[in-house]
Amino acid sequence: MRACDCCRARKVKCDSQLPCKGCVTSKLTCTYNHVPRKKGPKVGGKSASILNKLRLGLDQADPTAPEKLSWNVVSRPLMDRALKHYFANYYPVTPVLDEAEVYSYLTREPTSETFALVMSIVAMAMGDMLDLEMTTPSSRTQNVLQIVRIVCDAVHAEETALLTSGDHRQLANQTITVNSIITQFNLYGTFCQLEMPSRAFHYLRQAISAAQTAGIDREDFYKNDPVILEPFRTMFWCLYVSERGFALQHNYPAALGQDLPLYPQSEGEVFVGLTQLVKSFSVFSPTFFKLWRDGNAASSPAGSPNTNPQHTQTVQRLLQYHHANQASPLIPCSPVQRSDILITDQWIRLLLWRLAPYGVQQPADIAKNVVAIADSVPIQTIQAHGAGMMLKIYDIGMTVATVFQTAAHAEQFGIPAHLHRILMLMSQLQTSQHLSVLLQAAQRLLPKLVPDRVIKNEESSSDNTTNSGLIDYGGARLNTGVGSDAESGSSNSPIDGLGGFSSNRPIYPTPPINGNSTPQGLAAPAPLPHPHPGSYPPPVGTLHGPGTTTVGLMNEPYPRPSPNHSQQPLSQSPRINVHPNMVPEGPPPSEFFPW
């Protein structure tokens, strides 16, 4: 009696029917494709993990690369979901592939190139799709890495065949296509979603090396057929933007320069958004990256401020240049791009401020702007950017949580309300341990939050607070100091606007006031990629009388902001605050950091 493939993988009894009773009960596709082989040592495995992989449609029969490539290695429903997710969320950010052409690959026999491309799309989408039926986060990672292995096998299959055949001429003349570049780029995105920055950087550099080898970073590459070769130009700018953002987040060097004309010839809102991102990141020169990596910017700039007037003036000019190229909230691009562009602009503004932290008004305005942007776009457009977007929001929240000395000082700038909203926003993203780290940094400011300054919707109180005055940030809880309102018969909640969080996530005890210890019930956070909590400037503000604050390098007095810190409705576009001293004047600097 022969067992079906699924029962064999699960090591359960099979009645050898088609479909068998076990597959019908477990809602699996019953097949008999396995070819019996000689018995060997049994390999153990958890039944739940195997069942989960079978439901996803991942091939369990052979851990080695198949001799003949087949689209059946992943179930068609999963592949369709992954492709749909990719073109809905990633195409607006990386507008290189043609959707109809990719689907046409599935109707033909796969080649090594097309197979690797489609599987890389599946891997990248699986790392980001929040609704996949995964039993645990580790099973998600295992399944994604299994597909990554399949991609890598396919990528090297053709080269291995050429090496084996001895056809050195064909090996030397092997062409680099846009599909081969974006396959490596998708693997970079996959490891970003899995929060493995070192592996992500490896594949990003693989994609950049392939691009430079093909010569797509040189204008003469496009002279022969500029229309057909236009996807290569778009690919170059996607690599340019991704490398710069990743290098700043994780303290890696940047290799690509701005060597091509800025505007691609293609038209449409997708390319308008990509062009705006290129403009935003063009503020960073190679000298900037050198300073950033050497620690002048990354290691507590406010702790030992650079009082060189030339340094301060150059940072001011960089901010002016950045504001001159900052996107309008009404930029005609896709919603996914709009959230990326607007939040990235604020994050870049924060990085420039950290070079010369002359006051706390800048980070306060940035936090306010990010909250307004988040309120003006669907949350799905922020979730679509995965770990990269989460790290930018974390960076902003960590800075404002660190630069203010006291809760009273922070309340003058509306920081408790903004921090609260940022924490709520992060609880809707795949935050790993970043949420608990930010919560520990912010807890000395948030307990002083006065609920009725933030409450807009009292109906949300029953879903987001408990009688003990705890705020639930997607699993991590903070004691607001409000306590129970049982005696008065009312319940006021500081939760506002970003409601709708899952109440069945694990609830952890309130973090202790001592930021050096780990809350009971929370695993100690793994070392965070740069920037990490230690890289943020220490508090730099001191109060001087009832109307001004003297801070930082420039000792500028700032009037107290209006006590009205209410958030803008979802229907309004965000109002972006620009510091009055940062009004653009004159042309952009010809050379950043000339010293």
From TrEMBL:
What keywords tag this UniProt record? DNA-binding, Metal-binding, Nucleus, Transcription, Transcription regulation, Zinc
Q: Does the keyword GTP-binding apply?
A: no
**Pro residues bias located where?**
526-540, 585-595
Locate the region Disordered: 481-595
Subcellular location(s): the record lists: Nucleus
> Could you give a single Gene Ontology term from the biological process aspect?
DNA-templated transcription
Keyword Transcription on entry: yes
| Domain annotation Zn(2)-C6 fungal-type: ranges | 3-32
Which InterPro entries does this UniProt record tie to the protein?
Carb_Metab_Trans_Reg, XnlR_reg_dom, Zn2-C6_fun-type_DNA-bd_sf, Zn2Cys6_DnaBD
Q: GO: which molecular function terms?
A: DNA binding; DNA-binding transcription factor activity, RNA polymerase II-specific; zinc ion binding
Q: Which stretches are tagged as biased composition: Polar residues? A: 563-575
Q: Which GO terms describe its cellular component?
A: nucleus
PANTHER family the record matches: GLUCOSE TRANSPORT TRANSCRIPTION REGULATOR RGT1-RELATED-RELATED, MALTOSE FERMENTATION REGULATORY PROTEIN MAL13-RELATED
**To which protein family does this belong?**
Belongs to the MAL13 family.
Name of the featured protein: Zn(2)-C6 fungal-type domain-containing protein
